[in-house]
Design goal:
tt1808, chain A; six-stranded mixed beta sheet; three-stranded antiparallel beta sheet; 4 helices; 14 strands
């Protein structure tokens, strides 16, 4: 995400300016049990998730675990970050990495070779997620699919890599819809992703 053109207005408010090295030191020290992302030189606290947010993320993780070979892939929740080359560390809600998992050289809590990333959109950060964070994720060479999941309607936004520098965007909605994650040979129905989260 983070690029020379990123403006302060694009980044969530708050946080403190620290070097990448200082951020890694603080995270690894365990001196603070809160969750942080590192965005263009700033250490920014990640707020707690709503119940629907948490349930959706859990349903995605469960669905992936039942479909993927654990000898080939690792599925992670929101406690481990993804390394954005030379700029940032993001905390996606769900990450799929191919084994052997590659860790960031400076931060062994951060995955450097994600294949698929899921972000459940929050009202307060969805604009940031769809712009700055999207650009960061799409700059990761190993990534093949970035999936944004609404928590207010049954709707998915998916970016799928088609060739170097070329991404296909697709938006789908409704319980009968299915998303295809070709790189890991998995299909997920929106009904499976959402369960009864949006039931009246």
């Amino acid at each position: 995400m983070a690029s020379a053109g990123t403006s302060a207005i694009d980044i969530p408010p708050g946080g403190i300016e620290v070097s990448r090295e200082e951020f890694v030191r603080r995270v690894r020290s365990g001196e603070d049990d809160r969750r942080y992302e590192y965005i263009d030189g700033r250490m920014i606290e990640v707020s707690g998730a709503s119940i629907p947010h948490g349930v959706i993320a859990t349903l995605i993780i469960t669905a992936l675990h039942t479909r993927l070979d654990s000898n080939e892939f690792l599925v992670l929740g929101g406690q481990n970050s993804v390394s954005i080359p030379e700029s940032s560390y993001f905390l996606p809600d769900v990450t799929v990495a191919r084994k052997p998992v590659e860790l960031d050289e400076a931060n062994d809590w951060s995955v450097a070779n994600p294949v698929v990333v899921f972000e459940v959109l929050s009202r307060s950060t969805k604009q940031f997620d769809r712009t700055v964070q999207r650009d960061g994720y799409l700059s990761v060479p190993s990534l093949t699919d970035l999936v944004f999941v609404s928590q207010t309607e049954m709707a998915i936004e998916q970016y799928s890599r088609r060739s170097e520098g070329e991404w296909l965007f697709n938006k789908t909605s409704g319980p009968q819809s299915v998303i295809s994650l070709d790189s890991i040979e998995v299909e997920l129905s929106l009904k499976k992703i959402y369960g009864d989260v949006l039931a009246d």
